């Protein structure tokens, strides 16, 4: 299956990358990155660049290829899942599990 068509795998890999970024924040030791196959990692990097460009210039979205539009939807689905599972600490801005009662910085919820 072509990477751009494999929406569930793209969403999963994007979610894992977000989790890794969150876990790496303020970690004392480097955390091993998720094993994202290179073609998926490249497509996700491309989508992230498109996403940034769209933030600056929303008109670009008008002529977006269908694969890119589906990929951006996969990114958004991963972001929604991340927001459901994590919250940001008001004390230190670190992302932590939504169920956590306390942040490593000492902030309590
Ligand atoms: Zn905190």
Observed structural traits:
109 residues, mainly alpha, two-stranded antiparallel sheet, 3 helices, globular, binds zinc ion
Quick structural overview:
The chain has 109 residues and is mainly alpha-helical. It has helices at 7-24, 38-56, 66-85, and strands at residues 86-88, 95-97.
How would you spell out the order of helices and strands? HHHEE
* Number of beta strands: 2
Summarize model confidence as the mean pLDDT: 93
* Rough outline: globular
Strand content: 5-15%
What Rg do the Cα atoms give? 16 Å
List each distinct ligand once: zinc ion
Please give the alpha-carbon distance between the first and last residues.
Answer: 44 Å
Strand order of the largest sheet: 1-2
Low-confidence stretches at least 5 residues in length (pLDDT < 50)? none
Percent range for helical residues?
A: 40-55%
Helical region count?
3
Strand count, sense and barrel status of the largest sheet are: 2 strands, antiparallel
Q: Helix/strand-derived class?
A: mainly alpha
């Amino acid at each position: 299956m072509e990477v751009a068509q494999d929406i569930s795998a793209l969403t999963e890999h994007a979610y894992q990358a977000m989790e890794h970024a969150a876990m790496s924040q303020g970690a004392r030791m480097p955390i091993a990155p998720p094993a994202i196959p290179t073609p998926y990692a490249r497509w996700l990097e491309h989508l992230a660049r498109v996403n940034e460009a769209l933030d600056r210039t929303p008109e670009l979205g008008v002529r977006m290829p269908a694969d890119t539009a589906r990929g951006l939807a996969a990114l958004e689905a991963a972001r929604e899942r991340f927001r459901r599972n994590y919250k940001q600490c008001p004390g230190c801005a670190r992302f932590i599990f939504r169920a956590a009662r306390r942040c490593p910085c000492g902030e309590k919820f």
